[in-house]
Amino acid sequence: MPTEQELQISPIVQESLMHNSRILHNLQSLTASLFGVSAGILGLESYSGFLFYLVFSLLTAALFYAVRVAPTSLAAGKAPLDTSRYFKSPFEFWAGGLMNELAGFILTWTLFYGLVRA
User: Fold this and answer.
1) Would the pTM count as exceeding 0.85?
2) Where are its TM segments located (predicted)?
3) Max Cα separation, the chain?
4) Is residue 78 over pLDDT 80?
5) What are the residue boundaries of the structural domains of the chain, listed by start?
6) Of 6, 46, 93, 103, which cross-links 2 as Cys (Cβ 3.0–4.6 Å)?
């Protein structure tokens, strides 16, 4: 949690937090559908398809962190993996979209699995 002095020097702006969350949500929605297409084309079934989704969703969050959050955090002297300045909570960043985007993944997964196997 930032101290009072840190908040006075660089305040946390709610509009920026909402913008960051919206960008991350859009990325997670797009990639969940793309992962569903990939899992369907590969013919993954049952647990292997869900494991595919879990691994690649976390990989996407890590890549997003490496490209967008880490350079600015390290430049500001923050601890690694600290997302508190840019998102409401670390859970929202790392795992918030897993359950929210699962329906889109399953929809495209079953669609493309049916198209390829038909």
Assistant:
1) no
2) 50-70, 91-116
3) 63
4) no
5) 13-117
6) 6
